[in-house]
Amino acid sequence: MPRNAVVGVDIGTSSSKGVLVDAGSGAVLRSAVREHAVDRPGPGRFEMEAGVWWEEFTGLARELTAGLGPDRAVAAVGISGMGPCVLLTDDGDTPLRPAVLYGVDTRATAQIDRLNDELGADEIVRRCGSALSSQAAGAKIAWVADEEPAVFARARRLYMPSSWLVRQLTGAYVLDHHSASQCTPLYDTNALNWYGPWAGRIAPGLELPPLRWSGEAAGTLTPAAAAATGLPAGIPVTTGTIDAWAEAVSVGAQGPGDLMLMYGTTMFLVHTVPDAALLTSPALWSTVGALPGTRNLAGGMATSGAVTSWLRELFGSAGYGELLRLAEESGPGANGLLMLPYFAGERTPLMDPLARGVVAGLSLSHTRGDLYRAALEGTAHGVRHNIEAIEAAGGDIRRVVAVGGGTQGALWTRIVSDVTGRPQELRATTIGASYGGALLAAQLVGDARIDDWNPVAETVEPDPAATARYDELYALYRELYPASAGVVHALAARQHR
């Protein structure tokens, strides 16, 4: 009998990643990546063509399964993707425009203001769990309706990267509950369903998808999808979810008190609270979890790895290894530099789409290593700010689990532990969302358990001396935003002209 394997694929902001995993042990047998860029058609706007998602999935699936011998059989597929995104199609599933991406896209500020006035900001939080922000997919739908009425008049279905792939693979039109809960104000987090009165008002004519939990089977692979991907027809495909929640699955961070910290293009935090506790905060997102019986307080920084990538591009030939070495040499405090990493606005806890990056303390003596260190430390300060907001909202963080590409190289995770004063667990496999998708796929066909698949490998402990030094810098970090906001907002307004 061949041994079962599962495929997990995640559509991310800068790349799509896939893994082939042994369904019994969790061992990664193969991995593959397709890098891509998002479109930026104007200030504050981030878009992507849906065709890229399917093209990259088919390429990844074929690469991961090419030449598999008779001892291996792909038994299931797990999906995840960036989000919440808004891809609108006509009744024949033809995309009507590029997908509007998640909270990095800040175009819908006027719609947020209008919906708050019409529906009531407090009532939105009470029913939907979260205040309207650039993260809210419902506001982006309203933007299309307002600004592109001819497009919206033809719109019949709503997709995100994960649900679009599910549609191509199985023919099913479904969305997971967690992704729906980020479609504020269309989803009622108390009733666990679309809220008809507001959905009909904001998205008239849209056939909103039926809802399932992330680990449920959406359907089985069609013969046409099998021909396109090289995967076996008839195998189950998960409903899938947004990437950060699949990341949490990949490291077992779904218990009450857990905080998943995702190091990626953006920094994401997902704190699990007891199911009975619908905690809300205007500075955070309160969502339904990826799995039944879970709820989350979540935060997200608009940039993190995106800033380090930008610096690497500016520095030319310098690779990440060299920059990490130089940042290590710079030492705590980056020789007197302090960075606000708000290069694409900021999501939580500021909820300020007009925030911008600030580097304070520059002198002619500062080096590439100092700037790179300041970027790592700036994101760490942002993590601490979010953690404080979570606890202020009633969260009880008992364990921090780190995941994502930024955990490689040790320096960034060490800086975050030093700045926050909190240890972080690192599991043996930190690939992230694609691995979480594979785990959910394996659970469709067997008894896969995270502690067997992916045990804790190490714990990053904070250095008390470094934490004391960072306490002083964090106080300055918190002062810098209000002190510079007026100037920064005026400059941001010029960028939109």
Topology diagram in text:
Elements: E1 3-11, E2 15-22, E3 28-35, E4 39-42, E5 45-48, H1 50-65, E6 72-81, E7 87-89, E8 99-100, H2 109-119, H3 121-128, H4 137-147, H5 149-154, E9 157-159, H6 161-170, E10 175-176, H7 177-181, E11 187-188, E12 193-194, H8 196-202, E13 211-212, E14 217-220, H9 223-229, E15 236-238, E16 241-242, H10 243-250, E17 258-263, E18 267-273, E19 285-288, E20 295-301, H11 305-314, H12 320-330, E21 338-340, E22 358-360, H13 368-392, E23 399-403, H14 411-420, E24 424-427, H15 433-445, H16 450-453, E25 456-460, H17 464-495
Parallel strand pairs: 1-6, 6-16, 10-13, 17-23, 23-24
Antiparallel strand pairs: 1-2, 2-3, 4-5, 5-8, 7-9, 11-12, 14-15, 17-18, 18-20, 19-20, 21-22, 24-25
Helix pairs in contact: 1-6, 2-3, 2-4, 10-15, 12-13, 13-14, 14-17
Question: Briefly, what CATH class of the largest domain?
Answer: Alpha Beta
Q: How would you sum up the major sheet?
A: 7 strands, mixed
Question: Mean of the pLDDT scores?
Answer: 95
Helix content: 25-40%
Low-confidence stretches: none
Strand content: 15-25%
What order do the strands of the largest sheet run in, or round the barrel if closed?
19-20-18-17-23-24-25
